[in-house]
Design goal:
By secondary structure, this protein is an all-alpha fold. It is built from 6 helices and no strands.
């Protein structure tokens, strides 16, 4: 049975998912590093774990936004989100809804999927190979 969206759109929607997730992820990094679009709720010390996370989120998010080196970058970002969840959220309780860990969990698994599925056709990676991923 066909759904409301034609199956031919699956690869394109993979690119859209990558783009939107990367944009939202990158905003967390720019918040930590540059106070943009809003300042972080706590000071970020240079060379601290949140500072490194901010760089991974900013640079990794930018690369994912473009679809450049998608698979290895997505794998790194997925790992960063797993570390964030287990170090910053899980100690406050089991359920992500209660420990405010929904975003790290979603980012972790979206990026893990991108590491396996690739960037989709609308990406620098696909363009460099002359075709869809």
């Amino acid at each position: 049975m066909k759904g409301p969206i034609p199956p031919s759109w699956s690869p394109r929607l993979l690119s859209v998912l990558r783009f939107i997730a990367a944009f939202l992820y990158m905003a967390h990094g720019t918040q930590k590093l540059f106070g943009f679009p809003v300042p972080a709720g706590f000071p970020i010390a240079s060379m601290s774990l949140p500072w490194f996370a901010g760089w991974i989120e900013t640079v990794g998010g930018g690369l994912l936004l473009l679809g450049l080196f998608t698979r290895p970058v997505a794998f790194l970002c997925s790992g960063e989100m797993a570390v964030a969840y287990f170090t910053q959220h899980a100690p406050h309780g089991f359920w992500p809804l209660l420990n405010h860990g929904e975003l790290p969990v979603l980012f972790c698994f979206i990026f893990l999927y991108l590491a396996a599925a690739g960037p989709g056709p609308w990406s620098v990676d696909a363009r460099g190979r002359g075709g869809p991923s």
